[in-house]
Amino acid sequence: MPETSVAHFYDELANDYHLIYADWDASLRRQGEALAALIGQDHAAVLDCSCGIGTQAIGLALHGHRVTGTDRSPRAAARAAREAAHRSLTLHTAAADMRRLPFPGGRFDTVVCADNSLPHLLTEPDVHTALTEMHRVLRPAGLLLVSTRPYDDLLPDRPASTPPQVHRTADGAERTVTFQLWHWHDDGEHYDLEHFQLHPADGEWRVTVRRTTYWALGQDQLTRLATEAGFVESAWRMPQETGFFQPLLVTRAGP
């Protein structure tokens, strides 16, 4: 897929992204609480370098952290800022690629790259470049939190789809159905994703399909790439331990 496909995917999804969740507000509070517990300090300067519409960034701002959000999707980043303002929170956002972060070195206490965002980068050099940038903008011993899908569990079977999720809109008036189809490449590591959302409209179902590509990046691979980018004390923390919905690589910037 072309280089612009990830930004286009999330630009198109930005208005409907919250419909992936049964209760988006509850999810951002829950995710923010789990990440804040791992950060373990008050009023940290946090960069969410894949902020989307603000699920983790707003959750962390609710806990008093000073959060900046960037995303490759301008529409998603703009919505994150609006959603934060609606909740009387400050969230500075910008459209930026995590491989070219627009900040001076040593700016942040913590960098967050959550919700399976890093695997949108499809090669080792690109992932290494992104991790090197995250290391650059962290203060010495700064914390990096990266979450991905549990690919070590998924790769043996290479699933073709996700189960449908049926959620009601905030006013309870309408239902939305969301599911994904995964088309695996011949290399067995990359897959094209088709994201389906079905919305009721005038007695019919309106179907929206959006497409992007991922790399099923295993935990050992990601840990190795983080080490090569200068991170130390790397450990994987599982959802049953952290309360976060995906496995998390927890690591710190080395000297």
UniProtKB/TrEMBL annotation:
- Which positions fall inside the Methyltransferase domain? 46-142
Q: What does the record list as GO biological process? A: methylation
Asked if the keyword tRNA processing belongs to this entry, the reply reads no
Give one GO term, molecular function aspect.
Answer: methyltransferase activity
Q: Does the keyword Methyltransferase apply?
A: yes
Q: What Pfam families does its record include?
A: Methyltransf_25
Keyword terms of this UniProt record: Methyltransferase, Transferase
* Entries under InterPro entries matching the protein: Methyltransf_25 (IPR041698), Methyltransf_Superfamily (IPR050508), SAM-dependent_MTases_sf (IPR029063)
Highest taxon above the source species: Bacteria
The protein depicted here goes by the name: Class I SAM-dependent methyltransferase
Which species? Streptomyces muensis
